[in-house]
Amino acid sequence: MLSRLKIYYKIWKIIAINTWQETFINRGSNILFMTGKIIRFSMSLLFLFLIKGQLTQLGDYNTDQIIVFFLTYQFIDVLTQVFYRGAYNFRDKIMQGSFDFTLLKPIKPLFQSLTGKPDINDAIFIIPTTILSIYLISTLNIEITLVSIVWYILLLINAFLIATAFHILILSLGILTTEINGFIWLYRDLTSLGRFPINIYLEPLRLALFFIVPVGMMITIPSEVLLNLKPTYSIITAFFTGISLLWISLRLWNWSLKQYSSASS
């Protein structure tokens, strides 16, 4: 098991190095891309601090707490982009037939389909933004303990599992329908609702964002735990949701592979 993980790590490392080299070849476009992400992140923070200057409460949360929700969303979103950017190119593999060759290789096709093109720009971007986020959180008027930090980290891992499950579901639907981009952008739009606590939305949207598309389990629950607030749903429920969704997505992926008829058909 451990030796197998080392093999996959070496494969991913080679892919990442190749992507890094491509990044340096297209320096101009990547600089513009990075500049755009910095501007977008800065404008979002500016928006939050403007709200903080005008409002003292949003739903049951004060503005300092709202900033924590946004920073949690930002971290999970960027981390997912770093590892699973390969999903954005999966439709081309299906349409052009290159997925046939992926199936012939002695590694799991899911691994290569998900992680086939790590986003180096986001990998670079996540370092300063994480440092800035930790600094911003340290300046807020909130109560954080060592225990809440530990649970927060564990729930972030669970959030990453949920994001992984979503991307596996998208790849599975891509095999069945040859449509990827629409599902990806639907996922991105829904997760963007997690910038703010899901509890501020009305039913039935709130319930859907906790259990059908569990954005709340990804962002709201970890943020509430970090802030030492009573979570909307228990930590056990959050972990159960993450593990269950990952199991369902893997089952669907295995079933969708059996339906794949290859480009030659």
| Rg, Å, rounded | 20 Å
Q: Summarize the biggest pleated sheet.
A: 2 strands, antiparallel
Widest sheet: strand order? 1-2
Number of helices: 12
Globally, the shape reads globular
Helix content: over 70%
Counting DSSP E segments of at least 2 residues, the number of strands comes to 2
Characterization of the model:
The protein is mostly helical and 265 residues long. It has one domain (2-259). The chain is built from 12 helices and 2 strands, in the order H-H-E-E-H-H-H-H-H-H-H-H-H-H. A two-stranded antiparallel sheet has the order 1-2. Strand 1 and strand 2 form a beta hairpin. Helix 3 (63-84) packs antiparallel against helix 7 (120-139) and helix 8 (146-177) runs parallel beside helix 12 (235-259). The longest helix is centred in the middle third of the chain and has 32 residues, at 146-177. The protein is globular. The two termini are 36 Å apart. The mean pLDDT is 84.
What's the helix and strand layout?
Blueprint: H1 2-25, H2 27-54, E1 57-58, E2 61-62, H3 63-84, H4 90-96, H5 99-104, H6 109-115, H7 120-139, H8 146-177, H9 181-192, H10 205-211, H11 215-226, H12 235-259
Helix pairs in contact: 2-3, 3-7, 3-8, 3-11, 8-11, 8-12
Describe this protein with a few key phrases:
265 residues, mainly alpha, two-stranded antiparallel sheet, 12 helices
Question: How would you sum up this structure in a few lines?
Answer:
The chain is mainly α. The chain has helices at 2-25, 27-54, 63-84, 90-96, 99-104, 109-115, 120-139, 146-177, 181-192, 205-211, 215-226, 235-259; strands at 57-58, 61-62.
